[in-house]
Structure formats: structure tokens, C-alpha cells
Design a protein that fits this description.
single chain, alpha/beta, 20% strand, disordered N terminus, two-stranded antiparallel sheet, 332 residues
Length: 332
């Protein structure tokens, strides 16, 4: 199973900086039986049958996941501009389940199952030609695994997911059973040496994938000394209400002097996906002035949030952050 299948079924593959230590592992253990059942159905009976099975599964989780249902409703009200109907809530959960299912086919290289549109992929080709690597900054919107559609026609494309190490262990275990030939590459974060591993991967021409709407601290090694990566959380207006976003991924890109490419694979229903790439920031040239560095980081982070907001307004059912994103539970 792909990184996206595991993290989507568990509602995330990473942790925000202020989450509790057990946050990620608890979600990785959840719904494991359902995940295995869907894998068996998909591989044995095919995508068409599996999509029919998604309907009762969607109804089940809509009925018996009160926290996810509550967070979905809050989000949809902001994205749609009105209190969501039951049908709209169902559509949100079903889109999530559909993308989870399709990630299995993406990671197995079964691109013929989909209708794929692509735009902006020339920035990926430019990056590959340069051989310096870059960061692919996505979000819990649509399917990050749709990136494999790009790799199918670009043998030089090599992507490593930068993610929490506990999740990586589970992914390797499940993937070995259902997609043994898939070259899953994971760079574990949250420990000394992580940044050096990312740097080496990029120096070899690889791409490092991050999901920027949730991120855990990366350890930074500097001249043999390990220290915590400097990063902060900034409240930025998002769908009409301030929400916390971290500048950690962008600081990492600036530290390693790399280009940052915004990437999303929007799910358009049925077999259709729309893959989009856009340069978000270019930190390849060093910036000596500290104030200018902070200005550039601030500008890039706000640009990321603006793109994210535009996407979820365009395709509201593609947002898969089923947690207290605006930190509102304490107020209720």
C-alpha cells in the first residue's frame, strides 16, 4: 500500500508540531481491518466492484465517526458558504474513500484505470534536467500519489516522502504484501540526521515530497551538531478564519537552497484526476540579510495558503483534514 493509502485511511501521515506524541500511531492503528478488506476487494474483484463497496463503508463512517463528521461539517460550511446538507457531507466522505481506494491503483502503476489531465509539469522537467532536486509541497487535498502518473513517463523521476518514522514502518509492512515491486522511499523526520538525509537525496536529483498543512519538526545537523529545526506556527486567514500554518517545510527548503514546487492531484469524480504543478518559491540563491530571508519565507507561506484556499473553494470535497484544523473544539 502506498504512503497515501496508509495515511489516508488513518487520516494523516504526519503530525502537527503541537500534537501529542501518540497522535500519529493511534491513527495508523485505526481502521486496519477495513483497510485490509478494501485492499483484498480491490485486488481480487477490481476497482468497479470496490467502488460499489465504498458506498456502505462511507455511510458507516459518516454515521459512526462523530469527530470526523463534526470537523467535516465545520469545514464544508466555510468552503461552501452554507450549512452542509446530509448529501454534501456524504459526498465529502465518499470523495475521501474514493481517493484512498485509487491510491492503491496508482502505487501499483495501473494508470490505465484513470483519465488524467496534467498542467505545469514542465517545471518538474526543468527540475529533473538541473539535477539538483526540489521540494514538492502538497497538502491533504486530493491525491499526492497521483504523482506516479507523472513518473510513468519520466524514468528519472524519483520521489521520497518526508514523513513521521512510525508511519513509515507500517507502510513498509503493508506495501510489502500488496505492491512488492513499488520503490517506496521514505525519509523519516523528527530525529538527528533527517536534514542531511534529505540534502543527500536532493543532491542526487531526487524530489522530496511534503504535506505542508501538517508537519513535524525536522532535526538539523550543522557541522556535526544536532539541533532542532527552527520553525514557527503562524495564524493565517483561511476560509474566513485564522488557522495555524507552519513555515517548517519552507525553512527547510531555504536551508538547503532548493526550489519549492506546489503540487496537487485533484479528484474530479469517477476516473478523473487533474494534476497541477506550480513553482511556489525559489530559494536556490543564498540570502544574506536575515530580514529579507524572513520576508521571503513569509511571502512563500502566504502564497501557499492562498493556493490552498483557492483549491478547496474550487474542489471543496477534496479536503481531507478530518481533524480540528482551526482548534475550535476547546471553545465548544
Amino acid at each position: 500500500m502506498s504512503p497515501g493509502v496508509s495515511k489516508a485511511m488513518s487520516e494523516s501521515a504526519g503530525a502537527a508540531a503541537d500534537d501529542t506524541p501518540g497522535w500519529s500511531s493511534q491513527r495508523e492503528r485505526s481502521n486496519l481491518a477495513t483497510m485490509r478488506l478494501m485492499v483484498w476487494i480491490a485486488l481480487t474483484l477490481g476497482r468497479r466492484v470496490a467502488r460499489w463497496v465504498l458506498r456502505p463503508i462511507t455511510l458507516y463512517f459518516l454515521a459512526f465517526s462523530p469527530a470526523a463528521r463534526r470537523h467535516s461539517a465545520r469545514y464544508l460550511e466555510r468552503a461552501l458558504g452554507h450549512r452542509p446538507t446530509l448529501a454534501e457531507r456524504y459526498r465529502h466522505f465518499h470523495a475521501f474513500a474514493s481517493v484512498v481506494l485509487d491510491r492503491l491503483f496508482f502505487v501499483r502503476g495501473q494508470m490505465q484505470a484513470f483519465e488524467l489531465a496534467m498542467r505545469g509539469d514542465e517545471v518538474v522537467d526543468t527540475t529533473l534536467a538541473e539535477g539538483r532536486g526540489a521540494f514538492l509541497l502538497g497538502a491533504h487535498v486530493g491525491s499526492f500519489e497521483a504523482l506516479h502518473a507523472v513518473g510513468a513517463s519520466r524514468p528519472a523521476l524519483r520521489v521520497a516522502m518526508v514523513m513521521y518514522p512510525d508511519n513509515a514502518r507500517m507502510i513498509h509492512d503493508v506495501l510489502a504484501q500488496v505492491a512488492p515491486d513499488f520503490p517506496l522511499r521514505v525519509i523519516a523526520i523528527g530525529r538527528p540526521g533527517s536534514t542531511l538525509a534529505i540534502r543527500d537525496w536532493l543532491d542526487a536529483g531526487g524530489l522530496a515530497g511534503l504535506l505542508g498543512d501538517r508537519f513535524v519538526a525536522v532535526a538539523v545537523a550543522d557541522a556535526g551538531r544536532a539541533a532542532a529545526a527552527r520553525h514557527g506556527t503562524v495564524d493565517i486567514p483561511f476560509l474566513g478564519k485564522p488557522a495555524p500554518f507552519t513555515d517548517g517545510p519552507l525553512r527547510l527548503a531555504m536551508l538547503l537552497r532548493r526550489r519549492v514546487i506546489f503540487m496537487v492531484g485533484l479528484y474530479l469524480g469517477g476516473r478523473r484526476y487533474d494534476l497541477r504543478f506550480e513553482e511556489l518559491a525559489d530559494f536556490r540563491e543564498p540570502i544574506a540579510d536575515a530580514a529579507e530571508r524572513e520576508r521571503r519565507l513569509h511571502e512563500a507561506l502566504h502564497a501557499y495558503v492562498a493556493r490552498l484556499e483557492a483549491l478547496v473553494r474550487e474542489a471543496p470535497y477534496n479536503w481531507f483534514n478530518f481533524h480540528d484544523f482551526w482548534h475550535e473544539d476547546a471553545a465548544h
